[in-house]
Hints:
Blueprint: H1 2-10, H2 15-59, H3 66-79, E1 90-97, E2 104-117, H4 121-127, E3 135-145
Antiparallel strand pairs: 1-2, 2-3
Helix pairs in contact: 2-3
Amino acid sequence: MMRRRRNRLDDDRGSELIELAIVLPILLLICAAIMDFGMLFQRYEVVTNAAREGARLASLPGGYTPTDIQNRVNDYLTSSGLDPAPTPPTVAYSNVVVGGTGPTVSMVQVTVQYPSEFTFLGALLGLVGGSGYGTITLQASSQMRVEVPGTGS
């Protein structure tokens, strides 16, 4: 009788199932985080390129208005698979002195902000009562020299 009882205590059948039940949620959370951050990085690249497109348009001669720049940014976002930016891009003009005492150069800076939602992490954390990682605002800024017609610059 003693021998049978000892065999049952030494038996480790079912331990793999318990280990899987402990490790699987952690593994799924890591996979969800990898996918979310990959999509977040892709969206950040799109927002960066949209700011660059807006700054390029603003730097060209031709009297483009901030509305034209906003339309270019929104067109780029839409063609890349994102919804247009809910807030218009910020366009700021400034003069920069080159080399300290050299000539001044007009610069334009376009800043784009885009709210991005976590697809998987927000839902998973909502299941356990968390809500801090639902949306993050991506921001990119691009600065370019304003071209002056007839000067070759």
